[in-house]
């Protein structure tokens, strides 16, 4: 999922939030130019079940104004579960 022309944002459905599920606490804005699977941050305040196909959120697409630098970062093209790549941010000098 992604686009070279629009910035995606993700928000939880309010009915899911009322169950105590919090989604994307720190990464609700996607980068323009990122193409790949999103990793969602899920936190449940209580025990509950999330079922396959359950609608837990919605994507919104925003058109930017002005010049855009496309994302070309360490997660480009991600597919499936992906461990952190934060160590790429630090040089081995």
The end-to-end span amounts to 35 Å
Q: Give the helices and strands as they follow along the chain.
A: EHEEE
pLDDT below 50 for ≥5 consecutive residues: which ranges?
none
Strand tally is 4
Structural class per helix/strand content?
mainly beta
What average pLDDT do the residues reach?
87
- Give, in spatial order, the strands making up the sheet with the most strands: 1-4
Largest sheet: 2 strands, antiparallel
Approximate shape = globular
Compute the gyration radius: what is it? 15 Å
Strand-residue fraction?
A: 15-25%
Helix content: under 10%
Task: Work out the helix count.
Answer: 1
Brief account:
The chain is mostly beta strands and 93 residues long.
Helix and strand topology:
Blueprint: E1 7-12, H1 14-17, E2 21-23, E3 42-44, E4 57-62
Describe the structure.
It is a single chain. The chain is built from 1 helix and 4 strands; from the N terminus they run βαβββ. It is mainly β. The strands form 2 sheets. The protein has a two-stranded antiparallel sheet with strand order 1-4. The protein has a two-stranded antiparallel ribbon with strand order 2-3. The longest helix has 4 residues, at 14-17. The N and C termini lie far apart (35 Å). The model has no long low-confidence stretch (mean pLDDT 87).
What attributes characterize this protein structure?
93 residues, mainly beta, two-stranded antiparallel sheet, two-stranded antiparallel ribbon, 1 helix, 4 strands, 19% strand
